[in-house]
Amino acid sequence: MLAGCLSSRPVPEFAGATGSASQALGSFTIASPVLGQKTLSPTSCSAGDHQFFLGADFSDPASGLVLRLVVDALEGPAVRLYAADAEFDKSVVFRRAECSVFHFSLDSTGWRVNKVYDYRLTLQLDCSRAGDSIVGSLSSTHCH
Known about the structure:
Blueprint: E1 26-32, E2 36-40, E3 44-47, E4 55-60, E5 65-72, E6 76-83, E7 91-95, E8 99-113, E9 116-129, E10 132-143
Antiparallel strand pairs: 1-2, 1-10, 3-4, 4-5, 5-6, 6-7, 8-9, 9-10
């Protein structure tokens, strides 16, 4: 009886929602002695629930970088940029106090699959300190 309620076709709202090779979720300009000067254009978003944190990872296979938004209950929000192939060796962290612009929204869409929530996210950054900077924005309607 349930077979009539299921479909193998993607729901239009979800199709391409996490990005594709040709569809970036946004763009960031990065300058850092550790990571170099690059443009990060994430094409996918993965909810932090997978690794037990509130936030999300935004991956860009072309640049080899990942931007992680973490919302800490004690310290507040922060972003971490890291090289996908050297996650702990090539990493830069920016906290809200180091940014002239640090705006984010992290809202549940109401969907949940296998204990992983689906989020609607926006992030806008303009952060800098001696030698390191990141400027840009992104948006994802479905991050899971």
